[in-house]
Amino acid sequence: MNSWDLRAFRNDLSIFIKKIGDYNIEGEFSSLNTILENLENKALVSYKLESICFYVNSPIAGTFPDNLHFFQIYLDNMLMVKDELDLNTDPLYAYYLNIYIQAYKSQADNKKVHFSSWHLDKHKNENVPKYTHPTYHFQFGGKKMELLDDQLAILASPRIPHPPMDIFLGVHFIISNFFNNRQYGFVNELLADYDYQQIIKRAQNRLWKPYFKAFDSSNIHNDFTMNNIFPLYLS
User: Fold this and answer.
1) DSSP letters spanning 153-221
2) Cα 16 to chain center, whole Å?
């Protein structure tokens, strides 16, 4: 089966939404149902997810200031697949993933908010870049943080190579990185859930398998090449 089969993708998303409810993950996820409905009228996998939100009501290790105990973690993700799928070209023609965090002393004490933001971009190969520019890369900061404080310095560098993520892999990323698995029992239970594992594996097969083949000397992919995804590497 084509890994980008729309019916299979919709079925995975339907199961995924149910898992979020089954494991009582706190947050606001209604946009996922909107995406599921909109995909009924699509011919290909194509969506724009805006601001699903996870609630983390406990400290996150390494956070500064260290008195922040309640976090709202927002996920935006746009992903659009090309009409003609070619195994040797990147199937995505439009893409971004944003993680935007609002942090407070507590859920009740929400007068002062602190912000953090990361975004995963796809570089458009229109011009020769002035700095190293992996095709897909994580960056700290972004437009949501540029005007927060006149003492805040946001640099576009470094751009950290990272494979693209869709809804499933984006949620998986947040759960794995921001929820303490010793405090939140659902984390290990969800990661061990067979249906959840299969959904994540299918997403990895769509997006990560061709990406990581760039490290194989026999790779013939036109877009996922070592020079594109990891330009720091000198062959």
Assistant:
1) -----PPEE-----HHHHHHHHHHHHS-TTT-HHHHHHHT-HHHHHHHHHHHHHHTHHHHGGGSTT---
2) 15
Q: Residue 175 above 80 pLDDT?
A: yes
Alpha-helix runs per DSSP H in 64-106: none
pTM over 0.70? The answer is yes
Q: Of 172, 162, 161, 224, which Cα lies nearest the Cα of 203?
A: 172
Q: What is the distance between the alpha carbons of residues 42 and 170, in angstroms, rounded to a whole number?
A: 22
Nearest to 153 by CA among 145, 165, 163: 145
Sign of CA dihedral 131, 134, 136, 141: negative
Give the position of tokens 């290909």. 44
Query: How many Cβ atoms from other residues are within 10 Å of residue 212's Cβ?
Result: 14
**Residue-wise pLDDT tens digits, 181-193:** 999 999 999 999 9
Residues with Cβ within 8 Å of residue 233, at least 6 apart in sequence: 226, 227
Residue among 171, 11, 12, 5 at smallest CA distance from 91: 5
d(CA 74, CA 103) in angstroms, rounded, equals 11
